[in-house]
Amino acid sequence: MADAAQDGARRVLVAADKFKGSLTAVQVAERVTAGLRRVVPDVVVEAMPVADGGDGTVAAAVAAGFERHEVRVTGPLGDEVTAAYALRGDTAVVEMAEASGLQRLPEGVFAPLTASTYGSGELLRAALDAGARTIVFGVGGSATTDGGAGMLAALGARFLDAGGEPVAPGGGGLAALASADLSGLDPRLAEVELVLASDVDNPLTGPKGAPAVYGPQKGASPDDVAALDAALAHYAKVLAGTPGAGAKAAEYAEAPGAGAAGGIGYGALLVGARFRAGIEVMLEVLGFAPALERADLVITGEGSLDEQTLHGKAPAGVAAAARAAGKEVVAVCGRLALAPEVLGSAGIRRAYPLTEVEPDVAKCIAEAGPILERVAESIGRDFLR
After folding, report:
1. Which of 248, 279, 310 is the last residue of a domain?
2. Domains in the chain, number
3. Same-domain check for residues 178 and 42
4. CATH of the domain at 95
5. pLDDT tens-digit series, residues 45-104
6. What's the average model confidence in pLDDT over 166-188?
7. Which residues on adjacent β-strands are paired with residue 36?
8. Which of 236, 258, 279 is the C-terminal boundary of a domain?
9. What is the pTM assigned to this prediction?
10. Helix (H, G, I), strand (E, B) or coil at 375
11. Are residues 241 and 302 in the same domain?
C-alpha cells in the first residue's frame, strides 16, 4: 500500500455484506474489485467483507485472517451437521446460524415449535475447548424460537417437566417446563468475555418480542406465535424462581437483544453476555479502523438497501464509522429503496443498485456477479478518475 500511495494511486476499501441468495460478502468484494480495476487499473483495493452478526459472520472473520474450525454439532431438527467457528489467538467468532440457522432446514421445511438451539451451545463449548477467552457470539438468521433453552442445555443446564423428564426441544416444549437447574452450566462461561452481537434489540416476548416479530419468518402461524409467546413468558417466569438466574431472569427478558434469533439472546444474557450492535463488534474484530485510515473511498453495501439497513445493518455501521473519519462512502446493492436524502443522512454519498444496470430483478439475482462488476465500473468512472 505504501508504494501505491507514493505513486499517487487511489485507495479503496470494500467493506460490504453479502447479497443474500446471490453473492457472499467475499464474492461481492471480488466482483467490485474486478470492475474498479477495469476502469482504473492502478487502483489499490483492500477487501474487508463484513457482517452484522447474522449468517456470514464466520466467513467475514475468516476472510480477515481468523482460522476456520469445523465441528459436528446438532442441527435445529436434531440431526448432526458440520458447523464452523473462527478463532484467532484467544478470540473466537461463533455464529449461531452455522448450527441453528434457517439454512440448516431442508428447503420448504419449517419447525417453528420444535427447532432447537442445542447445536449453538455445542459450538460455544467447542470455542471454550479451543481456549477462547473472548467469544463474539453473532446471532441472526435462526430457525429457532426456543429462548436459548437448547443452547443452555448443551452448556449444562437442565429443563424438566412435572415428571422430572427433560422437556421436548424447541419453544413449544417450554410450555411444559416445571423446573430449571442451572447449577451444571459450564464454569468456563464465568471466565470468558461473551459478547452478544446482533442487529436487533427486541425483548423476549410481547408485541415486539421474538415470536411476534420473527416467528412468521420461521413458518409460525398466528396460533404458533401465540403458543410460542406464552411458552417463552412461562420459561422466563420459571427461571425467575431458579437459583443462579432469579431476579435477573425477568430483567433480561425485557432487555434489548433478548429477542434476537428466536430469543437465544435471552439465554446468552443469562450466562453473562454483554449485548452490543453486531456491526460495531465485527468492525472492531476485523480491524476496520486501520483499514479505513488507509482508504480514500469506502464502498459498502448489501442485497437490499432499505429501511432495515438503517437499523443496525452492516452498511449503516460502515458508513457511520467512515463518516466519523471523514471518508467518502458509496454503496452497492441489488435493490435500492431509500431516497438520496435518507442515504445522505446515513453517511452514504450515493448508492448504485444492480437494477440501475439491469431492470429485470430475476436477472439481477441470477447474474449478480457480472452485473455488479459493471456497477463497480461506474463507481470507478464517477469517483476514481
Report:
1. 279
2. 2
3. no
4. 3.90.1510.10
5. 999 999 999 989 999 999 999 999 999 999 999 999 999 999 999 999 999 999 999 999
6. 98
7. none
8. 279
9. 0.93
10. helix
11. no
Residue in the block written with cell 445493518: 313
State whether 73 and 211 are in the same domain. yes
362: CATH: 3.40.50.10350
Write the pLDDT tens digit of every residue in 344-380: 999 999 999 999 999 999 999 999 999 999 999 999 9
In angstroms, the Cα distances linking 342 to 6, 66, 314, 331, 351 are 37, 35, 16, 13, 11
* pLDDT tens readout for residues 229-247: 999 999 999 999 999 898 8
Structural domain of 75? 57-279
Q: Is 153 helix (H, G, I), strand (E, B) or coil?
A: helix
Q: Which one, of 106, 194, 97, lies nearest residue 140 by Cα?
A: 97
CA distance 377 to 34: 9
Which of helix, strand or coil describes residue 105? coil
Q: What does the alpha-carbon distance between residue 375 and residue 39 come to, in Å, rounded to a whole number? A: 11
Query: Are the C-beta atoms of 150 and 121 separated by less than 8 Å?
Result: yes
Q: Are 53 and 135 in contact (CB under 8 A)?
A: no
On the question of pLDDT at 114 being above 60, the answer is yes
Q: Could you tell me if 107 and 226 lie in one domain?
A: yes
Q: How many CA atoms lie within 13 A of 2 on its CB side?
A: 0
- Tell me what pLDDT residue 7 has: 56
Specify the length of the chain in residues.
385
What span, in angstroms and rounded, lies between the C-alpha atoms of 102 and 218? Answer: 8
3-state SS record for 315-366: HHHHHHHHHHCCCEEEEEEEEECCCHHHHHHCCCCEEEEHHHCCCCHHHHHH
Query: What DSSP state is assigned to residue 167?
Result: P
Q: What is the rounded distance in angstroms from the CA atom of residue 238 to the CA atom of residue 139? A: 24
Do 75 and 176 belong to one domain?
A: yes
Q: Say how far apart CA 324 and CA 212 lie, in whole Å.
A: 36
Are residues 101 and 166 both part of a single domain?
yes
Q: Could you report the per-residue pLDDT of 287-305, keeping only the tens digit for each?
A: 999 999 999 999 999 999 9
Residue 126 shares a structural domain with residue 160: yes
> Are residues 316 and 268 located together in one domain of the fold?
no
Q: C-alpha cell of 167?
A: 422437556
Residues 116/89, Cβ–Cβ less than 8 Å: no
Tell me phi and psi for residue 283, to 5 degrees. Answer: -65, -40
